[in-house]
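>> received
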Amino acid sequence: MAKKKLLYVQTSGINTPQRLYSPFILAQTALAMNVEPTIYFLGEGVTVVKKGEAEKIKIGNFPSLKDVIDETLRQGIKLLICQQSAQLFGEKLTPDDFVDGSKIVGAATLNNLVLETDGTMWF
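>> returned
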């Protein structure tokens, strides 16, 4: 039997910090459940993985968002960034502008991921 897959799509950006932890925590939990997680950053969600931004976010007793992202990457969970969304911000964002371990991908990737996964969650 093939391993189950879950896709978490982060559309919220750094201006809504209370919405940013969930995809990372849920992806780590999925991995612990032997489910293959992927996090895809779309629209304002690309700001979450822009270098220097996650360090600014810490809510309640949770560690900083940067620490949560670092742990997510350490566990081998894929972080995919929509190329077109990165271009929406009017900047010439390159892979060097995003956290190490993330990958910029085309829009078709999201469509393919949705078709291939067993479930999706949007934040």
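>> The longest helix spans residues 22-32.
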